[in-house]
């Protein structure tokens, strides 16, 4: 296959970029409903329970999500990397083996998450900064990670290009939380009841996601023979057949898990640190401020989800030059979106924060703007991680994350010590800059070292380098 001209994009390349933006539009359509509903239920919860009560639930959720993501293998990436080619060739037996492997990873992650969460809730409450009132419900809430292990159906819908269904499912948890919050005056406005509502939201979202994915597979007649061959997963795992037929699949699964674990530091782990050092009220304020910032920046950050399938398709064709151009074009487009979003936040961010939490506290406003700045930095580098993953350079992604975490955590603790909640924002911006620069260096190195053989992957040996 001849490379497209470096000056004029090929029709396939333009079509890929248009498809990525179309899928982005579909996801944003769901977020257009999800974001205001999320802020509405948070605002209602704060007014019903106060900042302290809401902060307790935020600490519980951050704890469960951290444990769940800690053991999550990000199996949707494994399904996309190893299942895309056999699915395109209608090689169902091979596709089913990857699908079963992905499901086993989810099951292992979900069970391990529950066990770790229960043990941690019983033994580490003081370290987590939990007040005594949080312990009973905290242990029960530790079952939630089982329903957070749903990467496989997410991968199924992405690989089948059903981003519309992902957008539909993405609003389920928020809608349940809102309805549950509205019911609090009837059932009793307590943080325990709100925590149970959030747990129910995870269960229903999990159930719907699996239902949508399996329905889509059946509709496309992609499930024939799946269940009858289910016993094959035992020799695949016990005798190492999966590793032989899909070279590097275990390494890729563990590396993507490590990458997801390291990325936790900038989300839920930060919430845990803020809660344990500064208390539930600050944890709640941080959650709201970062949620508003993430919501404002969502048009840019969600583009990354649509780039993975497009880059996987170009990689399968051996069209690496078109991948570089797609990355460059999407980065420019996302950067432009980011600038517009920052202008929006400067104009309306303070008002929006006041409407949600009932105050325009300077610390909360400051951290919201800083967090948005970190999101925009990440937006500019959003094509880099999909590019490295597609190049089978998952190890480089993890190295970049490790360097970033080593930089971020000490800075975060120092700034919190001297500036309290206002110190969290600058630490996040610094961490985002370090991560993007590291990923850029890794991507440039991967491009220089990419050989003709690795630029044209075969179906028989799709393992990561």
Secondary-structure map:
Blueprint: H1 11-70, H2 75-88, H3 92-123, H4 135-141, H5 151-159, H6 163-170, H7 172-187, H8 191-219, H9 233-238, H10 241-245, H11 249-263, H12 268-278, H13 280-301, H14 303-317, H15 320-357, H16 362-380, H17 384-390, H18 394-419, H19 424-449
In words, what does this structure look like?
- The chain has 465 residues and is mainly alpha-helical.
- It is 78% helix and 0% strand.
- The longest helix has 60 residues, at 11-70.
- The chain starts with 10 loop residues before the first helix and ends in a 16-residue tail after the last helix.
- 51% of the residues are buried.
- Residues 1-11 and 452-465 have low confidence and may be disordered.
Give short descriptive properties of this protein.
single chain; 465 residues; 19 helices; mainly alpha; disordered N terminus
H-E order = HHHHHHHHHHHHHHHHHHH
Class derived from helix and strand content = mainly alpha
Rg calc = 22 Å
Number of strands: 0
What can be said about this structure in brief?
This protein is mostly helical. It contains 19 helices and no strands. The protein starts with 10 loop residues before the first helix and ends in a 16-residue tail after the last helix.
């Amino acid at each position: 296959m001849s490379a497209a001209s470096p000056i004029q994009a090929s029709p396939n390349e333009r079509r890929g970029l248009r498809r990525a933006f179309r899928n982005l539009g579909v996801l944003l359509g769901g977020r257009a409903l999800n974001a205001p509903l999320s802020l509405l239920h948070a605002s209602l919860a704060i007014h019903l329970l106060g900042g302290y009560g809401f902060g307790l639930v935020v600490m519980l959720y951050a704890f469960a999500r951290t444990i769940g993501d800690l053991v999550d293998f990000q199996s949707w990436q494994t399904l996309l990397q190893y299942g895309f080619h056999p699915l395109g060739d209608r090689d169902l037996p091979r596709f089913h083996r990857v699908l079963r492997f992905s499901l086993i990873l989810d099951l292992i992650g979900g069970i391990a998450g529950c066990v770790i969460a229960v043990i941690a809730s019983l033994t580490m409450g003081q370290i987590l900064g939990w007040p005594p009132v949080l312990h009973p419900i905290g242990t029960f809430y530790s079952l939630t990670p089982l329903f957070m292990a749903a990467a496989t159906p997410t991968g199924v819908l992405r690989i089948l290009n059903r981003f519309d269904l992902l957008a539909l499912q993405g609003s389920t948890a928020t809608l349940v939380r809102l309805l549950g919050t509205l019911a609090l005056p009837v059932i009793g406005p307590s943080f325990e009841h709100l925590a149970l509502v959030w747990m129910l939201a995870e269960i229903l979202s999990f159930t719907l996601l699996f239902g949508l994915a399996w329905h889509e597979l059946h509709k496309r007649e992609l499930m024939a023979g799946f269940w009858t061959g289910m016993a094959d997963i035992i020799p695949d795992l016990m005798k190492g057949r999966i590793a032989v037929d899909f070279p590097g699949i275990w390494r890729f699964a563990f590396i993507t898990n490590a990458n997801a674990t390291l990325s936790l530091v900038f989300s839920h782990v930060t919430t845990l640190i803020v809660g344990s050092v500064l208390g539930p009220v600050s944890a709640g304020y941080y959650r709201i401020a970062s949620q508003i910032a993430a919501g404002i920046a969502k048009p840019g950050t969600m583009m990354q989800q649509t780039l993975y399938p497009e880059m996987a398709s170009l990689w399968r064709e051996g069209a690496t030059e078109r991948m570089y151009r797609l990355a460059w074009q999407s980065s420019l487009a996302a950067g432009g979106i980011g600038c517009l979003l920052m202008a929006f936040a400067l104009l309306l961010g303070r008002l929006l924060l006041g409407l949600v939490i009932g105050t325009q506290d300077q610390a909360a406003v400051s951290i919201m703007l800083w967090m948005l700045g970190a999101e925009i930095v990440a937006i500019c580098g959003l094509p880099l991680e999909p590019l490295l993953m597609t190049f089978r350079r998952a190890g480089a992604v993890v190295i970049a994350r490790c360097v970033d975490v080593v930089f971020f955590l000490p800075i975060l603790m120092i700034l919190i010590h001297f500036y309290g909640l206002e110190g969290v924002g600058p630490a996040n911006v610094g961490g985002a800059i370090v991560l993007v620069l590291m990923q850029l260096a890794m991507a440039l190195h991967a491009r220089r070292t990419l050989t003709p053989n690795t630029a044209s992957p075969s179906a028989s040996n799709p393992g990561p380098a």
